[in-house]
Amino acid sequence: MRDPSAGPSPAPSKPPPTAPPIPDPVPATARPPRCTPPGSACSSPAGPPPYDAPWNGWWRTPNRPSPLRLPTPTGCAHGPPWSAPGAGPRTAARPGTADALYGTEAERAALYGIDAERAALRASGGRRAARRTLLRSLGPGSHLLPVAARTLIGCALAGYLCAALGVGRPYWAIVTAASLYQANVTLTWNRALQRTLGNLLGVLVFAAVLPLSRTGPLALVLCCLFFSFAAEALITRNYWLGSVAVTPMALLVLEFGGSHPAGELIGDRVLDTVLGALAGFLAATLVTNRRATGRVERALEATARARTEAETAYAAPSAELDRARRALTASLVELREAGDAAAGEWWQRALPEQELLAAEQAGHRTLAATAQRLGPAARAPERGRGRAAHALSIGAE
């Protein structure tokens, strides 16, 4: 009860002015029903768990136009900004980003990682730098240019040859030719033998399994699953064994569209495999890699510089020594790749094999010394430090 001596009661305070309502861009009749009743966790102003927003927006990731716009339930905190309770005024959204999907700061923060992954490409010069890197990797003097030229010529030759002979499926020959190319001619020859042997044996397996697969749809599906599992399990261990499983799987997949004459499928596969392997290896032989030895010489110079920097930084702080050690490791990897690639090429200058071996041994000795300097051995007694210094002196020879 109010005290009469307290005087007249104060006038009721006016409510604070509110911003004018934002016009609803979607008519109420066009909205889908609520996904949950009001007051539930989904419709609370606090919003959904952090994983709800990315799950709800998987179909409209930035820079990916969506042919299908799924209806978002109204009344949910992860719904459209105009239907989310407490969403506040909607800010201007940048098209193609998370801002265009979600209105509040919390909703945009849930999808921040999607924009962050594309920050480098959106930055000024990011795409131009990526194009320049690609062009340099395929430009004159690049060790990838001969492989690219072999692939282009070999695939084109295999396709035209099969089309001229009237083989039913020339793309099998193109795939065979493209799968042959490795770092050098020797490895390409090995891959050609493995591919041809695996496909021929796989054709025999297909001929044996075909009657079983035609007993019913379930048998066909189980056969495809078995050969798919076998291909994944074997292809990384032995290429020709993996090809034995890939060939019947590829031929059985054609049975889903309808039965085909077994003789036609087997004949096309054998002809495409043989023609593709011949055309691919012919292109690898004709397109020579005369720059392989030059790559080895450049790798030797880079390894010598990196080893000198690592020896100079041996007494420097750990951060500088770690940087020099990483550079030396990268140069040794490049030196080994260049040597392996050049060892299998023909029609080129003689390789400096002794110099290559000496550079690798000296580089690895220097790496061992820097590892002792950075690792627990750096805190060992003086005898341990003496061994590290002796290893460094050996690497400098």
Automatic annotation (TrEMBL):
Biased-composition ranges, Pro residues, are 7-26
Taken from the record, one Pfam family name reads: FUSC_2
Q: What does the UniProt keyword field contain?
A: Cell membrane, Membrane, Transmembrane, Transmembrane helix
What sequence ranges are listed for the domain Integral membrane bound transporter?
A: 157-282
List locations, semicolon-separated. Answer: Cell membrane
Where is it found, in Gene Ontology cellular component terms? plasma membrane
Where does this protein have compositionally biased stretches of type Low complexity?
27-45, 84-96
Q: How does it sit in the membrane?
A: Multi-pass membrane protein
Region Disordered, annotated ranges: 1-49, 62-96, 374-397
Q: Which InterPro entries match?
A: Memb_transporter_dom
Q: Which N-terminal residues, if any, form the signal peptide?
A: none
Give the family from UniProt. Belongs to the YccS/YhfK family.
* Full protein name: Integral membrane bound transporter domain-containing protein
